[in-house]
Amino acid sequence: CATMRTSALLLLLALPALVRTQTLPGHSKPVAYHLDIHVPDLATTSTFNASVEINVTVTTSTDSFVLHAEGLDIDPSRVSVQYHSRLRGWREEIVSDVVHNSSFLDIKLERPGLTGDYIITIGYTGTFQNEMAGFCKVGYHFNRMQKYMAVTNFEPTNARKVFPCYDEPPHRTKFVLDITVNRSLFVLSNVRHTSVHNVTDTTKVFRFDGYPELPIHSVAWVVLDHNTFQLQTSNVGATLVHTRAPYPYSNHTAWANRMTASLLSALKDYTGQVYSHATLEQVVIPEFFVGSSEGWGLISYSEEAILVTPERSSAWYMQQIALGLASGLAHQWFGDSVSMDSWDNTWLTTGLTEHLKYVVTCSLEDMKDWELAEQEVVELIQPALALDVNGHALVDNTQTEAEEVKEACDDITKYKGGAIISMLHYILKDNAFKRGLT
C-alpha cells in the first residue's frame, strides 16, 4: 500500500544514519535543567553570572560527568554533585577535580557512583557573544538613544556557550528558567512566564516553568525594553500570533503577522497536527545577521527577513518573506515538536522545512498566482545540482566536533536535502506523502 511504500522509502533514506555519533560518554543522560541567569546592565558589561542545576540519570556506573561547555568561566568552588539514595535521600558526592578545556567540562568524583538519579550544580560566568551564536547582545537606537537587548541562538551547537549541558540531538528535557534583569526590561521565552517579582530597587526576576520536553536547540529567550517595542497581534484558532518590533520598524510588521497566521493555519491543515502552543512569539532583532532563529514558540528574525511595506515592496521580495516565514513555522513541527536523534539527520529536518515552505505557501488562495511550485525547481533543486557538482554526502558519521556539525549545516545540505524531499514528494504523490509525515 502507499503508506508502506512511504515508510520503506523514508527508511531507505535514513539507513546511513543508523550509525550514531556520540561526542559525550553515554553513561548518563539529562532529565531536566534549572537555569538561573543574572543579566547585568546591558549597556556597561559584556558578561553575565549564572548557575545551572541538571537532573541526570546515570545508567552505567561512572566516576565522572562530562558535559559540553564552551567559553564559560567555571567556578570549581560552585560545582557539586548529589546522589539520590532510596534509603538516605539526597547525599553529597565528593568532587575530586573539575577539568575544563575549550569545549568540555569534566567533573570527576572521588569514587565511582552508583546508577540512579543525580543533580549536578555548576556556577559560572558567561560572555555575551558578538557572532550571533549563544547569548548575544544587540544594540539599536530609539529616539536617538542607544538601547540594548539580548537574544539567544542555540542552533546547532551554541547552547554550550550559555550553560554547561548535554548539547546533542537525542536529549529532550524539561526546563525551568529564572532570569534576573533590570526593572526596565522584559523577558520572553518559549512559554509565558509563570511569575515575576522585584528583587532589588533596580532588578526583577522572571520565572519560566512548564516547558514541554524540548531538544536543547529549541530553547530560547529574548531580553528587551518593552517600551521601545510595538506589538502586532492576530490569532489562529486558540493560538495567538505576536510580532514585536522596535518602533522604527513597527509599521512594517502587520503584513508578516497576518501572513504568519495564514501559514500557521495552512501547516496545521497540511500536517493534520494541531499547533500545541498557546502563543507564537516573533521578534524583530536589529542587525541579526543569521536571518532567523527558530525556538519552539519563539522565533527571532532579522529586519530583512520579516519587514514588509506592501505598497512599496516588490512581489518577489514579499514572496521571499512569505517563504522565510513558512520555513520558520515548518521548523516548529520538524525540528522542535519532532526533532532529530542524530546529527546525521540534519539534512532530513532541513530538507523537510525547505520543501514544505513552498508547498504550504502556494496552498494559500492569494499566493497561487506566484507559481511557487515552479519556482521551487529554480530556487531549490537547480542550486542543489550546481552546488553538488563534486558530490556531497548528506550523511557523515564522522561529525563529532561543533565546527564539523556547523559545517554540515551548509547550503548544500539545505538545497540537496530539500531537493531530495521534493523529488520524493513528486514520486509518492501528495496523499501518500502527507500520510508518511504523520
TrEMBL record:
Q: Which residues form the Peptidase M1 membrane alanine aminopeptidase domain?
A: 258-437
Per the record, membrane topology reads:
Lipid-anchor; GPI-anchor
Indicate yes or no for the key word Transferase. no
List cellular component terms (GO): cytoplasm; extracellular space; plasma membrane; side of membrane
Domain Aminopeptidase N-like N-terminal intervals: 30-211
What residue stretch is flagged as signal peptide? 1-21
Its required cofactor(s), as named, are: Zn(2+)
Query: Record's superkingdom?
Result: Eukaryota
Q: Name one Pfam family in it.
A: Peptidase_M1
- Give UniProt keywords alphabetically: Glycoprotein, GPI-anchor, Hydrolase, Lipoprotein, Membrane, Metal-binding, Metalloprotease, Protease, Signal, Zinc
Principal localization?
membrane
Offer one example of a GO biological process linked to this entry.
Answer: proteolysis
GO terms of molecular function: metalloaminopeptidase activity; peptide binding; zinc ion binding
Where is the protein situated, by its record's location annotation? Cell membrane
UniProt similarity note: Belongs to the peptidase M1 family.
Name under which the protein is recorded: Uncharacterized protein
Species this chain originates from: Homalodisca liturata
Q: What taxonomic lineage is listed for the species of origin?
A: Eukaryota, Metazoa, Ecdysozoa, Arthropoda, Hexapoda
